[in-house]
Amino acid sequence: MRILALVFTIAFGAVSLFAQNNETKEEKIYTPEAGDISIGIDGTPVFNYIGNMFNGNMGNAFNPGDNRLYFRYFLTDNSAARIVLGVTNGTTIDRFYVPDQAALLLDPNSNAQLEDVMKVKTRDMEIRFGYQQFRGYKRLLGFYGADIGYRYQKIHRSFQYGNEMNELNPAPITNWGNMAIRPLEVNNGAINSIFAGAFTGAEYYLLPKICVGMELGLAYGVNFEKQSWTKQERMVLTQHVEEEVATDPGSRWRGTVTLFPYTYGNFYFAVHF
What we know:
By secondary structure, the protein is α+β, with helices and mostly antiparallel strands. The protein has one domain (about 35-270). About 15% of the residues lie in helices and about 55% in strands. The strands form two sheets. The chain has an eight-stranded antiparallel beta barrel with strand order 1-2-3-5-6-10-11-15. A two-stranded antiparallel sheet has the order 7-8. The longest helix is centred in the first third of the chain and has 25 residues, at about 1-25.
């Protein structure tokens, strides 16, 4: 009897342990919790790359596309503060060979060359702050929210020329032709943008804390473009003149637009930890 009772006890314990393991598996948490941090990326390049793998595209390459960074911090299990940060600042320097006109004047058969140089500086910075509320069932979460943002854009070009402009050569050869008026700097007016919007969307959690989602929204924005100007050089009779000339008085735009995608790409991936 004691042996039989021991067998039943062991069997009951094993069944109980198995049931607890099943309960533990069933309690696996897929969705974010308070205190979680989320990092998101545009999913469109990923889907394009996977699609090209199956359609026989021999030139398939992964192109990240959107370079913005997406972060969320979950204030509660059902709400999060979010920030979007985008920076595209760069400098491009292009060099071009042109005939050396001074050398040609001395020797028409000269192959001497000089360099024209164009430097382009681009600045594009954006930041957004938002809040979103979630609701849903199991792995599927819907959400809605609002955000505000600011963006700064500017392009500046500068030029250096190999052939000197002077009384004997008032329209020197350049990579862009013979110019009697040559730009030294082209300063496009900075564009400052302020915007606010409301958005909604849904996420599906493929794995614990890993989801794919999409969102759309409505935004109102205002753009302020400052004055543009050009610094140029030219000959006035025998005098070499450098001057600044206003080329665009600037502009202002405002409007309300529906957006899909609103922030991310058509689809996005997000990882929480």
